[in-house]
Amino acid sequence: MLEGNAERSVEATLGHLRTMDGPVTPPPPAAPLTLEDLYRQHRMRLVRLAILLVDEPATAEDVVQEAFTGLHRNWGRLRDAAAAVGYLRTAVVNGSRSVLRRRKTAREYVAPHAVNARSAESLAMLSSEHQAVVSALSKLPPRQREVLVLRYYGGLSEAEISEAAGISKGTVKSTASRALEALQKAMQSPN
Description:
Pfam families: Sigma70_r2 (PF04542), Sigma70_r4_2 (PF08281). Residues 131-183 form the RNA polymerase sigma factor 70 region 4 type domain. One of its GO terms (biological process) is DNA-templated transcription initiation. GO terms for molecular function: DNA binding; sigma factor activity. InterPro entries: RNA_pol_sigma-70-like, RNA_pol_sigma-70_dom, RNA_pol_sigma-E_actinobac, RNA_pol_sigma70_r2, RNA_pol_sigma70_r4_t2, RNA_pol_sigma_r2, RNA_pol_sigma_r3/r4-like, WH-like_DNA-bd_sf. The protein is mainly α. The protein has one domain: PhyR, sigma-like (SL) domain (Butyryl-CoA Dehydrogenase, subunit A, domain 3), CATH 1.20.140.160. 73% of the residues lie in helices and 0% in strands. It contains nine helices and no strands. It has helices at 2-21, 35-54, 57-73, 83-109, 120-124, 128-138, 142-153, 158-165, 169-188. Helix 7 (142-153) crosses helix 9 (169-188). The longest helix has 27 residues, at 83-109. It is globular. The two termini are 23 Å apart. The model is unreliable at 112-116 (pLDDT under 50).
């Protein structure tokens, strides 16, 4: 039962953030998909995805920019333009992982310090319940956070999460279950 409450809270919070992004508008059917179209349509959603994974807007922007740069380098070899969004999503997840690994390594050599990376505006736009969920999400291990963010913010299926995160569907299921349980505990315990 506890897991269900956490799942509803995560779904409500990340769904709320997804609706704040607005719908993705596809290009007119007659026009071929261009990198500029992809950038215009998906950039902000990918930035929010990266922010939820790395907790720093500037770093998230860098991760997304690197993903688009990589897509640009490989644009001529792209067989299916529809696969470009999946490529970008996977590149953002992998780029976020790299950032978190570098950050962990740096923290091992430098005394850790608390940084509240979220802007006051972004938190002010969320209710206190949503703020509690976002705060609890930031305390989860990276893989658990990835799975929940991809599922509830990204709106991805288990198969899509499996592909984007490079893990099996079974691992997606078990990680989501453990993450929801940990999230519920984090939201119930006082700071």
